[in-house]
Amino acid sequence: MTKWVYSFGDGAAEGRADMKNLLGGKGANLAEMASLGLPVPPGLTITTEVCTYYYANGQEYPDTLESEVNQAIAKIEKSVGAKFGDKDNPLLVSVRSGARVSMPGMMDTVLNLGLNDETVEGLAKNSENPRFAWDSYRRFIQMYSDVVLGVDHYHFEELIEILKEEKGIDLDTHLEAEDWKELAQQFKAKTEEELGKPFPQDVREQLWGAIGAVFSSWQIDRAKVYRKLNNIPEDWGTAVNVQAMVFGNMGDTSATGVAFTRDPSTGDNEYYGEYLINAQGEDVVAGIRTPQNLTKAAREAAGATLPSMEESMPEVFGELADVFDKLEHHYKDMQDIEFTVQRGKLWMLQTRAGKRTAKAALKIAVEMAADGLIDEKTAVLRVEPAALDQLLHPTLDPDAPRDVLTRGLPASPGAASGEVVFDADHAEAAAKEGRSVILCRVETSPEDIHGMHAAKGILTARGGMTSHAAVVARGMGRPCVSGAGQLRIDGKAGVMSCAGREVKEGDIITIDGASGEVMIGEVKTLQPELAGDFAKLMEWADSYRKLKVRTNADTPHDTSTAREFGAEGIGLCRTEHMFFEGERIIAVREMILADDLAGRKHALAKLLPMQRGDFIEIFKIMRGLPVTIRLLDPPLHEFLPREEDEFEDVAKAIGASVDHLKRRASELHEFNPMLGHRGCRLGITYPEIYEMQARAIFEAAIVVEEETGETVVPEIMIPLVATRKELGMMRAVVEAAAEEVFAEKNHRVEYMVGTMIELPRAALQAGKIAVEADFFSFGTNDLTQTTIGISRDDAGRFLDEYVKKDIFAQDPFVSIDQEGVGELVEIGAERGRSTKPDLKLGICGEHGGDPASVEFCHRTGLDYVSCSPYRVPIARLAAAQAALKD
Ligand code: ADP
Ligand code: MG
Ligand code: MG
């Protein structure tokens, strides 16, 4: 018989930390903490299998669930010495969701469950604190009505505001027992008014209502959006935790807080967190009151006046610090912790591996390895490759002038500029148009996730370092400034103001998530520093990876950036981009529009020295590292003049009439250029083009070898080959050019000739094509287009829908379609190598910088991946992780 419910508490538990799939992250870690002997309020976890069962069986529970829950509750009652629903000595519980991985803010928690008109009196008497009892009751009605019954919380907040106004009070803390009692009555009436039936007084009904709400919340829209963004499968389900309440709102010796064992923003090895005296958990994260610092040092650094927990509750703080150390040593990772202090006694409510910025992830991994807490391999596996992106992003130039509007908390590092928008839908729409926006909100909630994702940065007026905005922004790697308290944001009016200055929707601002500054206008940014922890981790990663990492770079500038990021060569240098620069385009057009071979050769002669110059520069920067140069690939029509003055320029250069050139241009028109006269088809019809390019490459190689004394081995790549014959012919053109140049210069260089595999036919015929090839480079952009038959340029209109409907798990242009396109890569690699066992294999295309695709390339036994310069570190780390996971 399946066990649906697991108990924990009193130094023991039926579950363990490694049972996250079954118990969810929260439940598994509560069990683990209980077993470790930490003070955890007793409770029970209903497994994720119940959630799966519930959705598979028309929202019905397993038969034995209720009795298992009742037995587990009886254990809690015994442990606490109180009874659920008892009017003299009531047990109160929280009902908490918890999926396998933490989904911040996605699932709603209900606190103080078990209160009704009778039990509240018992609680008041037992605690000798009626104010606390009535405050707890009104919180429960408010939360339960909102989360379970669907009565929006603003109704209740409004009632509180009205009462405070009547009494001339501005802080909740000044409301008395009688006030909360009055509010509890008003809240119940409000709920009844909204729902047409009374607020449930039966505690069992309350309990099962809350449990049902947790399971239902697995399917609400914001949870679905979060899962989609984070690739969390729908069928994982959530667990439900029912746990005895402990109270942080019992007066001035009670408190609640959240903490990290190290600074999640910088990675510094210092306790880090926030707490509130006389409050309940959700107050800290909701940003309703601004929380106080955990440590004295942090308070001083922030220039805050309210005492830190270290100062106000030194003894409990000491216990908490011991728990931090114990947990870090036990889990061997930085922990994110939730705790409550009830009348001077510490209770642990949650622990999990803490989310952190890339900078912190690096620092923590490197330091923990240095301290021997983890080994180097674990350190390499600890940093998520895609997160490195954050580190490669710009920071503000300290010397650039800045017009600071206001300051908030430095919630997630990185600097960003963009137009001010006040709502998540606008942010998303603007980003779709390619505009940069900063999402500015009073505070964010899970409904804003899509807008936060679309924005370049996030600014909030309320909320601490652990507010929703801060946590989500750090997870996404978006710069964020939170809690800019001076800022008055009026989203409806489309304006925010501070100290008499106004910023309107659409105005440009800059935020610095590292300092918390908010500036008017755009501020100059600087490129990141790649020494220190970054260099160390990369060094470790490099020692484990088997795949080489090259870059796609067309210009000397890209090439040097990529070298700094550790590229080990160029996997794809596209020669056509060079054709667009300055005056060259005129010579290129002259070549394309020439009437005959002589005319083309005339134009090519002008291009030769320019191409040679580029190659000399690139070979010099790469200093002996391999460089793969792809000969001309795109359809010629891409280079054609369009405007009248462009035709005139070319006409002047060739000495032909504009009309004549226009006629030539229209002859070159193609209906489907992506499948038209492009790639090696250009070389087949106009071999003189490839001949010129080959000549430029060899001449450049010779110049560089002679100047620097270093060996240059160019790898010449023929695009869009479908047959062995095409490659054979193009190879002959390149070889002839080589021999001519070598004879002229009396200097030979080594070189290779290979091809891109970017057509299904080429992958299938790889065995034959390999006869003519020294290397293959899988051009997965075109291979994806030609395999699936989807044009990348037109896919935007429907691909989103495909991903939403789960036809593709991900955009196949971002992460390689391993099943389909991947199979062709596997076939191409295998057949190519069966002809030539030492055939060099790589991939170029956007996929080279996508961690999952890199892992695929590792498994397929390729020699290298090639990606854009900024993705090189990501690919290096992903390659190391792939090797370590073997
Ligand atoms: P989330 O997953 O959103 O963090 P939690 O289930 O952790 O939700 O609950 C939010 C907060 O509610 C916790 O941080 C804690 O402060 C408070 N809380 C939950 N359960 C209890 C409890 N049994 N006693 C006291 N406070 C609780
Ligand atoms: Mg929590
Ligand atoms: Mg291509």
Q: What is the top-level CATH class of the largest domain?
A: Alpha Beta
CATH architecture label of the largest domain:
Alpha-Beta Barrel
What is the rounded distance between the termini?
36 Å
Apparent shape: elongated
Q: How many domain modules?
A: 4
The small-molecule ligands in this entry are: adenosine-5'-diphosphate, magnesium ion
Count of DSSP strands: 34
Pfam families: PEP-utilizers, PEP-utilizers_C, PPDK_N
Keywords: ATP-binding, Kinase, Magnesium, Metal-binding, Nucleotide-binding, Pyruvate, Transferase
Domain Pyruvate phosphate dikinase AMP/ATP-binding: 21-58, 65-300, 318-368
Domain PEP-utilising enzyme C-terminal: 531-882
Structure description:
With 886 residues, this protein is α/β, with parallel strands linked by helices. The chain has four domains: 5-244, 2-Layer Sandwich (Dna Ligase, domain 1), CATH 3.30.1490.20; 255-353, ATP-grasp fold, B domain (D-amino Acid Aminotransferase, Chain A, domain 1); 393-526, Phosphohistidine domain (Glucose Oxidase, domain 1); 545-885, TIM Barrel. It is built from 36 helices and 34 strands. An eight-stranded mixed sheet has the order 15-25-24-17-18-19-20-16. The protein has an eight-stranded parallel β-barrel with strand order 27-28-29-30-31-32-33-34, surrounded by eight helices. Helix 20 crosses helix 36 (872-885). The radius of gyration is 33 Å and the shape is elongated. It binds adenosine-5'-diphosphate and magnesium ion (2 copies). Adenosine-5'-diphosphate is lined by residues 41, 94, 96, 105, 109, 111, 243-246, 256, 281-282, 338, 340, 349-350.
